[in-house]
Specification:
Elements (H helix, E strand, L loop, with lengths): L8 E3 L6 E3 L9 E5 L3 E6 L6 E3 L6 E3 L13 E5 L5 E3 L11 E6 L3 E8 L2 E8 L6 E10 L5 E14 L6 H5 L2 E6 L4 E6 L18 E6 L5 E5 H5 L9 H5 L7 E2 L3 E11 L4 E11 L2 H10 L3 H20 L1 E4 L3 H22 L10 E2 H7 L8 H12 L11 E2 L6 E2 L9 H13 L8 E4 L2 E6 H14 L28 E2 H20 L3 H20 L10 E2 L5 E2 L9 E2 L1 H9 L4 H15 E2 L2 E2 L2 E2 L25 E2 H13 L3 H11 L1 H4 L3 H4 L7 E4 L10 E4 L4 H13 L2 E4 L2 E4 L9 E8 L2 E8 L8 E6 L2 E2 L9 E3 L7 E8 L1
Parallel strand pairs: 40-44
Antiparallel strand pairs: 1-2, 2-9, 3-4, 4-5, 6-13, 7-8, 7-13, 9-10, 10-11, 11-12, 12-20, 13-19, 14-15, 14-18, 15-16, 16-20, 17-19, 21-39, 22-23, 23-24, 25-26, 27-28, 28-29, 30-33, 31-32, 34-35, 35-36, 37-38, 38-43, 39-40, 41-42, 41-44
Bound molecules: alpha-D-glucopyranose (GLC).
Amino acid sequence: MKIFKTKYGHFSKDGKEYVITTPCTPRPWINVISNGDYGTTVSQTGSGYSWRTHAQLNRLTRWDQDLIKDEWGKYIYLRDEKGNIWSAGWKPVCVKPDFYECRHGIGYSIIRSKDFGIETELTVFLPNDDPVEIWKLTVHNRSRKKRTLNLYTFFEWALGQSPDWHREFHKSFIETEYNAATHSILATKRLWEVPTERGNWNTNWPYVAFHSSSIKPVSFDTDKESFLGMYGNQSMPASVREKLLKKKQGNWLDPIASLQNVLTLQPNKEKTIYYTLGCADSKEHANLLSRRYHSAENVAAAFAVMQERWDRLLNTVRVSTPDDAMNVMENVWLKYQAISGRIWGRTAYYQTGGAYGFRDQLQDSQIWLPIDPDRTKRQLQLHARHQFKDGTVYHWWHPISESGLRNQIMDNLLWLPFILNAYLQETNDYSILDEAEPFVDDPASASIYAHCVKAIDKSLDRFSPRGLPLIGSGDWNDGLSAVGLDMKGESVWLGHFIYKILSDFSIIAVKRNDGTRAEVYRVRARALKEMLNTIAWDGEYYYGATKDSGEKLGSRENSEGSVWLNPQIWAVIAGVSDERRSQQVMDVVEQKLEKEIGTLLLYPAYKTPDAFIGYLTRYSPGMRENGGVYTHGATWSVIAAAMLGRGEAAYRFYSKLNPVNRGKHPDTYVAEPYVTAGNIEGPDSKYFGRGGWTWYSGSAAWLFKVGLEWILGIRATTAGLIIDPCIPASWDGFTVKRTFRGATYTIEVKNSNHVQCGVKELWIDGERHSMERGSREKIVPPFEQGTTHSVIAVLG
Ligand code: GLC
């Protein structure tokens, strides 16, 4: 494949690594590595932070959000006999390396560097099932002389909530000790910010943090003052300059961890040292994990099973299209970003978090559907447990403390039935409807079906007198935070969304023998559609919302924000607009909202803050939700275009968002070229085209989904696998391998007629399949588990 080389780096040939060739990328280019519980971030400078379960409530190492300096991390210094000092990453010493390379891979990062005749290779990864990270450091003497090197690790302990509001307060609860038997520093804390029945700040941090090295250290330190020196500096710590660490341990220190090891290397010889950093349940557990990962065999085995797991997860869906930029994102990076970054880690550099967003992680969990749908089911169950018995839900909640935020954002609760429907389409497993889950405020369980009904019925109660849904303090767009605070303002997008949910859920209700409800939902859906097409129609397109005052937003009457994306594309997606109107609003999208970076969320941007719209208008014009490309929402444009058979547009919308393509202009785009950005700045910004808020963005799972399901057109329904490509006419075809209900399908789509869509012939396992005439899409039935099938679709 193409490796998309720029002056900062390129993909590896198999696409599974991004190779950064200089530490000075335009922004930190990071990896978010998580095993589902423990996690770490690694930037190309060697900086980053670590956590267990929740990056904000249970942070292990200190980190301050500073994307310019990027100078908080877990570092290794090297010092040679002449007193030359450098780092195995690049920070914090920042010596200009003779050679440097950072490979961000799937589940690991490797930084290689050569300085002063010494080559180092630092691999950071996490075993699948232990709360620990391993730093494997191989040091190779490339010079002609025997070399004696001192190695010093260094990071600052956080142990609990981060950032902590009062460092001098918090440090007085931390204790450190050195355990010579396991070559490890252990750290505990007698206080945690998690509220208890005995009040706040009145419980122990229940873990034992540890840091160890496979080679016996010659010294150590846990005191920042003695390590750096008073008024010292981490680019040249006093102790490293003076050589020997001071062995301070105990409490009342400003706590750090530093281990000092000495390596002697003959010319052309190398040695490997294994470091651990982890968050154990007890001292015994910490010592066990240190010992386990001091062994080269155990580390190699843990690395191999980590890779096997990722290969298994990534290989269930493979695509091969004429576009390598699409292939590398669909096959590798979007899945990895959604799973490691969004579902497991839930944190990154632009946004450090750890909470579950009610709507966010449900949407992200769609990534599991073609991979392991049981995991989507578990996500649905988890979110059902975070619903209140009146049907409303937390906007987000913290695992560990189980505290959350309730607000008046109106769409949150509806993602439960929306994702449930996606799960049913994939699996046809209606038994999920009977799974019982409690409510946040009521231990009595109700079925998942009942949870969904509560969400829908609550939403149906929250309508304006003229029949549109109320917007409250926001719809999907959080930035519309003040449009409907008096519970009068309305959301048009939410109307489309509810219409779709009512349509889908009435089918589910019929299957569940709940015909009366199905009828109620159909009646409400019809009335809603009617209202959307009369009062929400602005003449040329749908407007976006009304304020509490009744003033329209996203309308031709407005000079700022006069056209919004979501009310157009969701009219198509939900089936609210008829064919003529659908074509008309998509023309508006292509003419007014599509730019070279993708489809803008709205245009033109708001220049003046408006307290009756919300914080969206307070962002600089063109930034984020205020007139930028908001990648998460922009992915939906692909669905709408494909539904109308606009293959060229669908592919253009996708390709413009694709970070590989945006990353071809790295000095403008600045963000990582291998993961999606949350937003790309729009034309009203001075920094048009600049990407930001990478990794932790709801766009990864959606971009994967719209690429696979709407451009390549391979999507699950209860009846089987739909084949309905909508591609650029210039493509000769493509192949997709995916599993569906336990069977494996190899699907080859041939496009020698060079059309955008329409399956003319379908062959299943060598036999021509008879098909209904007239419909564009074709359905391949489900097969027995464990079987393999070949499908050929001819477009024309
Ligand atoms: C952020 C939020 C998401 C919201 C979106 C649009 O990505 O995490 O929940 O829908 O912004 O405002």
